[in-house]
Design brief:
The chain is of the alpha+beta class. The chain folds into two domains: about 5-130, NADH Oxidase (3-Layer(aba) Sandwich), CATH 3.40.109.10; about 145-250, putative nitroreductase (tm1586), domain 2 (NADH Oxidase), CATH 3.40.109. It contains seven helices and nine strands. The strands form two sheets. Strands 1, 2, 3, 4 and 5 form a five-stranded antiparallel sheet that branches. Strand 6 and strand 7 (about 190-195) form a beta hairpin. It is globular, with a radius of gyration of 17 Å.
Length: about 250
């Protein structure tokens, strides 16, 4: 499958998390095998082995949607961010095709299916046809932090109007905590940081905050590809005070 990044970038501004699904069959998710290969999903970290597949009904209990997608990965540094990066591409692809989705952070397969071929299921995603076709309008339909609350540097006019930072700003996150900070630096590079937090809710969310960073990074990546830009990732950087450096994304012509 060839990815249309312009179509995916458009989906950033209307995608939403759906929790009520019909039983309608989605041919795109039937007998699809490994979705990384089937959809041409790009990894954030290329040397981490990942498998993404639709779980069978006997592999997951209390299924709330027609389809439940499992994200399996090696347990290595940046594995969580990589899963979020890959998964959000899939999220945008499905939503661009009229298929509803929702990250399902607390839901995992049954115990005997949590590990497959040496890979661990880190998170799942619900998918299917929405029971009620409810549209989401930009920007009022997105309850998100202001730009000034997610950037590291002082607020500058170019950052306030930067479409890449805006794509990050409206990314989904576990219980809408938006745990990222973003910094625009030289050479058209955007650095991503995981915010330090002692909030009890963030402690409960735990590893999902790292998955959220991957999701946010995917939004910038998709927006850059939609603009026809080259991209590259960097994983060596300095923490910003208490905030942990995760990755740098360079987007250039």
């Amino acid at each position: 499958m060839t990815i249309d990044y312009k179509q995916l970038a458009d989906a950033i501004y209307y995608r939403k998390s759906t929790r009520s699904y019909s039983d309608e069959i989605v041919p795109l998710l039937e007998n699809s095998g490994d979705l990384v290969e089937a959809f041409g999903l790009i990894s954030l970290v290329s040397d981490i082995k990942v498998s993404v597949r639709v779980l069978e009904s006997h592999e997951v209990k209390n299924k709330k949607a027609k389809y439940c997608i499992g994200f399996y990965s090696e347990d290595k540094p940046l594995a969580l961010e990589n899963v979020g990066f890959i998964g959000q591409q899939l999220d945008l692809i499905l939503q661009s095709q009229g298929i509803a989705t929702c990250w399902w952070g607390m839901k995992k397969p049954k115990k005997e299916f949590k590990k497959v071929d040496g890979l661990e299921c880190f998170i799942t995603m619900m998918a299917g046809i929405e029971a009620k076709d409810e549209k989401r309008e930009y920007p009022n339909g997105f309850k998100r932090k202001a730009v000034a609350d997610i950037i590291v540097s002082d607020v500058a006019s170019d950052e306030l109007s930067d479409k890449f930072i805006e794509a990050v700003r409206i990314a989904p996150s576990a219980v809408n905590r938006q745990p990222w900070l973003i910094e625009k630096v030289v050479n058209d590079t955007y650095n991503f940081y995981l915010k330090k937090s002692s909030n009890p809710l963030d402690l409960i969310i735990g590893d999902m905050r790292n998955i959220d960073l991957g999701i946010a990074t995917a939004h910038l990546f998709v927006q850059a590809k939609a603009e026809g830009l080259n991209t590259e990732f960097n994983f060596v950087g300095e923490d910003n005070g208490k905030h942990k450096f995760i990755a740098g994304v360079r987007a250039w012509k």
